[in-house]
Known about the structure:
The structure holds two protein chains of two kinds. Chain A is 36% helix and 13% strand. By secondary structure, chain A is an alpha/beta fold. Chain A has three domains: 1-44, no CATH class; 79-89 and 361-464, Aspartate Aminotransferase, domain 1 (Alpha-Beta Complex); 93-354, Type I PLP-dependent aspartate aminotransferase-like (Major domain) (Aspartate Aminotransferase, domain 2, 3-Layer(aba) Sandwich). In chain A, α7 (173-183) links the parallel β3 and β4. In chain B, β6 (239-245), α9 (257-266) and β7 (270-274) form a beta-alpha-beta unit. Chain B is globular, with a radius of gyration of 27 Å. By secondary structure, chain B is of the alpha/beta class. Classes of the chains: A alpha/beta, B alpha/beta.
Amino acid sequence: xxxxxxxxxxxxxxxxxxxxxxxxxxxxxxxxxDLLEDIPETLRLKGSLNLPKxxxxxxxxxxxxxxxxxxxxxxxxxxxxxxAGCWQHHVPAVCDEVNQRGEFLTAYAGEPxxxxxxxxxxxxxxxxxxxxxxxxxxxxxxxxxxxxAATSLRMASRITGRRQVLACRTISADKLxxxxxxxxxxxxxxLVGYDAGTGQMDLTALRAEISSKTAxxxxxNPSYLGFVETHGEExxxxxxxxxxxxxxxxxxxxxxxxxxxxEYGADxxxxxxxxxxxxxxxxxxxxxxxxxxxxxxxxxxxxxxxFGIAPTVxxxxxxxxxxxxxxxxxxxxxxxxxxxGTAAALWGITAGVYLALMGPQGxxxxxxxxxxxxxxxxxxxxxxxxxxxPVFQASHFKEFVVNFDGTGHTVAEINKALLARGIFGGKDLxxxxxxxxxxxxxxxxEVHTRDDIDRLVSALQEVVQ
Amino acid sequence: MAQQDITRRxxxxxxxxxxxxxxxxxxxxxxxxLSREGQRGxxxxxxxxEIKHEVGDVLATLPDGMRRKQPPRLPELSQAQVLRxxxxxxxENLGADLNIEIGQGTCTMKYSPKVNDQxxxxxxxxxxxxxxxxxxxxxxxxxxxxxxxxxxxxSGLDRFSxxxxxxxxxxxxxxxxMRAYHAAQGExxxxxxxxxxxxxxxSNAACAKTAGFKVITLYPDEEGYPDLxxxxxxxxxxxxxxxxxxxxxxxxxxxKIEDFVRLVHEAGGLCAYDQANANGILGITSAREADFxxxxxxxxxxxxxxxxxxxxxxxxxxxxxxxxxxxxxxxIEFDGHKYHLNYDRPDSIGKVGPFYGVAPVVxxxxxxxxxxxxxxxxEVAEIAVLNNNYLLKKMLEIPGVSAPYARGKRRMEQVRxxxxxxxxxxxxxxxxLGLRAADFGVHxxxxxxxxxxxxxxxxxxxxxxSKDELDEYVAILAHVADEARTHPAWVKSAPHxxxxxxxxxxxxxxPSQWAMTWRAYxxxxxxxxxxx
Lengths: 465, 532
């Protein structure tokens, strides 16, 4: 390109010099500089930004970016057993087809008229989540499962007027870090231990800690470490006896076969919808849900947008709008509940598409299929000498802890050796749960075949011997 | 009949006629109403017999109380039905790919280049697990690192975190860093106030309050500039920091911004530059020039990543060298050969979200910035400002609208207009004008609450729309304003050409009627039927 010719940018229609000139003339300005008069000289950047030379053509840009990304090794090339909050599930083609559509992808904050489709799609998402969870209120997604948990706990604190949360120690360290930072001004987070044999929440310890100061008891099902917590009913009963709220984090893809937490007494259920149709995207596919009963004292504590159905002046026509908008920071700034803003709406729409495709039967089959495969993986891995799987004697859903203490190898060494064999081994837990020794969190889903699992097992066998 | 040139009939007095627009109206049922028992949308992979044989019935291993008893009452549809339903719903939106999306001021509804979407969908982006060995994700780490370097140049600040998942999350991160900084100074309890302005985004006030601070909101002086005298009265030894947008949502650049920062610094507070409105200042001025300690950019706004109906997004959070130790973990390092995630940050505020934020959004922003470079980014800012001042000139030719404050001055990238004169003349409110504008295929927004500017509307033309498109938008508003005088009832009953007609909002604020899910609606409707 000729350096002296001004560049006309395809994304900037009025970069055409003649148009620029005409517009300046129309507004009575001689130069562009005249328009920037309010920015004092002292604040002006001297010279131009020291940025890399641009790639003006789409062709060059694509080549450059693809070249960088080609340095990645994907989970299509490598056999992946990582989970720990971001899980490899199959993404149905229609999920991608819908969320790639420019009409959804580039919409934002239109009125319930211009963006009727956005409102309806999100109302349907919350409605289908409501069926999965057996709950009547579900929010328009927040950023991720961490935020959903943190906000659920602050909701519980506001509802009860109390400032202490008892959370099960088997939570992920990262999620706990987020919850602590987010709850810091209002809430003290106390951890309750777990049974070393079964992983289950230590009910004696819970009984000793819980009091009239407790706002909420929080646990996850399946837990971060993959096992099913079977004492939901006792935990929620104990919470309720002390006037506290029972908050449960649940993986939505488990709910075709696992009981929805409301059935064992949960008052607020939260989690991440990434398994429902989102590619992993290096952690970019997360989105958080919060669900409650349809009671005013709960509804009014949501910070998120809640979309409701409403009639129009035409008989039988569906309209939608914001429910109880006055509780939000959009309406009343700092007087609102926490805050609301851009979060992860497109993933909510996508999760709706996923649930509509799967239906009741699909959700039941995928849940059972995952549980069966992960059980198979545990049985096979347990046969390797010196390896324990699962560490906890309990039912597991898709993840489970594998211990390598008996092999004389660290998780880091094992994962390195697996990597050399084209396998991403489970997440190293030694930093998060030192009491578990050299343990890793493995994840098996519907994408894994018997061959995949057998390949992992024989690779592990080789590596530890 | 004699032949005639039909193109001539599309113009009146040499100007194009307004579009005879009608939005898609599919009258689409709620998805549950499309359900037929037994239909399947997608099949899940079968478990191999060998596995089944070895494992047996896993469900039987679940304690009774943990097993789902009733299947979820999800709809049952075939695949193409699901697709058609959602494609129809998609058509019932006015996204930036369809309309002259300049009516959503403060949100920078610019063009999101398609090539960047394609790049974000490559398997080398989509099919990455965030916990993979660093050796296997050098490409995406390189993108994150390179983009951070670009933001450092653009802002003048020293270190960025790309972890916050939108603008408000980044504001909260800034407040968290302020809190950690004051705690490290031994002033944790003492500094409990945060100052913001009414024309800064509501999340500045809301995030500060959520983090436990008392919020002081400054109102502008008579000319709409943030009031330095008001700030002087507000700062004290209790000041933790200032959260301020500049230019503010009025499109007015605060020329005394350095004095604001100095006053807060003198009182021992920190200053965060909310750069949600940075589109008109890229390459012209920066957080560093005004001596800010922290800032945030919304990559889904200024940096072109699509808005996605409200996310996913990224709020890139930048800080000075002094504050870098407080940034969320991990930060990305480069040793000249390898990119590395560094968690060894003892003073960090910790995690503000899972993993490293929304990488595909950063990827799009990186590609966008790389397609423009320094000259292109400056062109973005200049054309955004040019478009806005052109639009201002054209808007003010419409009788009944004004641009309060900073009279006779230029504006940056947006303007908050007022239809107060038109409303007092006709009784038609700004919001009603917007709903009528939708009949011509464009989106229009009023402003955040409270309406400090009466009968507001906030237009931000960005760099993405042509002069002809700006003219079309103004022609629509001029027509609607004219209708407000000649046919006010018609405007007040709009929209007429939209997907749906006027909504009765009563149920939305009534706990006995509101329904946020279909199941809740059916329960309540059954009650109404019973009670007649």
